[in-house]
Amino acid sequence: MKFFPVILIFLFSFCSSKSPVHNPQNLIDAIHYFERTWSNAVKDKFKNQSEEEASSNAHFNVGMWIRNNWIRGSSDTNLVSYFHSLGVYHPDDMSSIILVSLHRKLNGKEIDLSKQVESIKTYWEPIIECHKKQREQALVNFNKYVLGSSITILMKVDTTEGERNAVIYDCPDVEWTFNPEVDLIINGVLQAKYHINDTTNVFFKVRVKKVNFTNTEILSEKVKTGDTVDFSLRGLTIVGSDNNIQCKKCDVNKVKAVNEHLDRLTFTLVEDFLCTFDNSCKNNVEYSEWSNETLFKVLEKSPTILFQVIAKGQVNSQLLLKEIESPVSSESDLQKAYDKVKIASAPTAIKTKYLNAIITAAFKGGQKIKK
Q: What is the structure's pLDDT at 241?
């Protein structure tokens, strides 16, 4: 309530103004508009707040006015094009830059537009990359399953509000480790496949055959066996059919696929790779060496995803542990792998086994792991 009078002054200033709405062409033009139309009292109220308070308090009144009149609602697209040329695309970011820059100008400070833009790009970069990975994986799943397929979906269950609700995390923090004692397993049959507006915005219509917890809502909706549910494939963890994973053992193409996507690994890529490990591969030198080296790369890059696959219980974890205990390459950074595994999200029992396997590998090589 501290800044309520300020908000009223802003609203009153805009609502009572009889001046025609001016469509600025760039940032300087936008700043000049407020300098010209705001009274000295309003400008003083705005500039005497801290920068964070001023921009935050104005976001839902002056900021909304900017977004509705200059960004979303204006037929003059010059201001929007100006921001796009800077690499700024979200309306909230555009109005924020205007407000922050106005505050700095009124206080005689450098606007430092380049740093504002860089901060926004830094914020969006992991989100954009996350969305890209989700779209790619969504299309893989969309093309992988045919109508009538039996599929299994894993969903994280949120219990923070005292209820059980299966959710899909928003980018960029989407990694989670499946816990069979808490999280939801949905066994269903694929009834329909479709997209909305964009060919990468793909959906499955799934008839639910079985769930491991009947007291759990799915995306805040009550669902029972026999119901049909529409799932967006973006961010959805589909782990195959109800049966154990079927794959070609000693498949170097799966190893190659993981190496080509080390910076954007997905559950399916890692699952398909781990499935190829088998005792019968010992005589396949190319596969044995490359798969062992790749396993350590996955440990370093995406240990959480690796443990999600292992927790599902459909790959040979004992064989994987033996692989880790005996690294083929002397260049494997065991300390780095240990550190990455140690902070990964995973059931303690699973993580402990793999940490011990890395310690064993280091001991064999005459190294000592710093715990």
A: 60
Q: Using CA atoms, how far apart are residues 367 and 334, in angstroms rounded to an integer?
A: 9
User: What pLDDT sits at residue 243?
Assistant: 43
Can you spell out the DSSP letters for 102-136?
Answer: HHHHHTT----HHHHHHHHHHHHHHHHHHHHHHHH
The answer to whether the beta carbons of residues 234 and 135 sit under 8 Å apart is yes
Neighbouring residues of 334: CB distance < 8 A, sequence distance ≥ 6: 327, 358, 361, 362, 365, 367, 369
Q: pLDDT per residue over 140-192, tens digit each?
A: 899 988 899 889 999 999 999 889 999 999 999 888 878 878 999 999 999 99
Does one domain contain both 189 and 222?
Answer: yes
Domain boundaries, position 218: 136-238
Residue-level pLDDT at 13: 52
Q: What is the pLDDT of residue 12?
A: 42
For the record, the structure tokens of 268 come out as: 């399916």
- Domain assignment of residue 129, yes or no: no
Which residues does the chain have with pLDDT short of 50? 1-12, 14-18, 242-245
**Into how many domains does the chain fold?**
3
Q: Which H, E and C letters describe 284-320, residue by residue?
A: CHHHHHHHHHHHHHHHHHCHHHHHHHHHHCCCCHHHH
Query: Is residue 340 situated within a structural domain?
Result: yes
- Asked if residue 163 and residue 61 are part of one domain, the reply reads no
Where among 185, 209, 238 does a domain terminate? 238
Q: Give the model's pLDDT for residue 15.
A: 42
- 28 to each of 31, 45, 101, 134, 160, how far by Cα in Å? 5, 21, 9, 38, 46
Query: Considering 238, 260, 279, which residue would you say is the last residue of a domain?
Result: 238
The answer as to whether 128 is a domain residue is no
| 68, two tokens | 């509705």
Strands 237-238 and 150-158, bridge-based pairing: antiparallel
**Is 371 among the domain residues?**
no
Q: Verify that 263 and 333 share a domain, yes or no.
A: yes
Residues 226, 321: one domain? Answer: no
165-167 vs 217-218, strand pairing mode: parallel
The verdict on 146 and 190 lying in the same domain is yes
